[in-house]
Task: inverse folding
């Protein structure tokens, strides 16, 4: 068996991935998923391979600030986009508020799904603050503003992330706490 010919431009491409604020030049097979590029090529193993079919959310990362299941996204389609993995959510040595809330409220057990849960929760809080409705939002008119972030809203918004250990009650509490903290923080002035 011969190793793959990485010079064949009909099956491989040279790309630059922007991951956690750093640029990474890679040559990848066109079929390589973002998940495999992150784990196997960039050694960012915090993003987990769960089902490999986009059904469990273990591989959730942020792409341009929006959540994405990395097992269904091709690495070549991620070029030029800002990818944030669990390794990149903490800032200046401090845990992200969602990470801290997961610790404070025991929002994990085995921890396998936690990186995807945290990335998804970060996006959920931002989506809610921006007024995006969910399937359980009662009044979806834009002028109604964001609905209260009830446990039902959190469960619906986090429904793409499964926890085999069943830490859902604690996850909902952690997301609610992090969201309340985010809404209480003063917003930066837009110049």
Result:
């Amino acid at each position: 068996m011969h190793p793959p010919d990485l010079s064949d431009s009909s099956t491989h491409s040279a790309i630059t991935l922007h991951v956690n604020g750093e640029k990474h030049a890679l040559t990848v097979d066109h079929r390589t998923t973002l998940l495999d590029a992150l784990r196997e090529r960039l050694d960012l193993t915090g993003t987990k391979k769960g089902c490999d079919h986009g059904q469990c959310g273990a591989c959730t990362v942020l792409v341009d600030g929006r959540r994405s299941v990395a097992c269904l996204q091709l690495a070549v389609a991620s070029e030029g986009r800002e990818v944030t993995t669990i390794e990149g959510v903490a800032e200046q040595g401090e845990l992200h508020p969602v990470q801290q809330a997961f610790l404070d409220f025991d929002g994990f057990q085995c921890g396998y799904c936690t990186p995807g849960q945290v990335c998804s929760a970060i996006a959920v809080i931002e989506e809610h603050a921006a007024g995006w409705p969910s399937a359980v939002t009662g009044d979806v008119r834009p002028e109604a503003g964001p609905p209260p972030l009830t446990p039902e809203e959190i469960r619906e918004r986090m429904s793409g992330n499964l926890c085999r250990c069943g830490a859902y009650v604690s996850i909902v509490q952690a997301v609610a706490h992090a969201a309340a903290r985010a809404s209480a923080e003063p917003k930066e002035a837009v110049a």
User: Anything to note?
Assistant: The first strand starts at residue 12 and ends at 19.
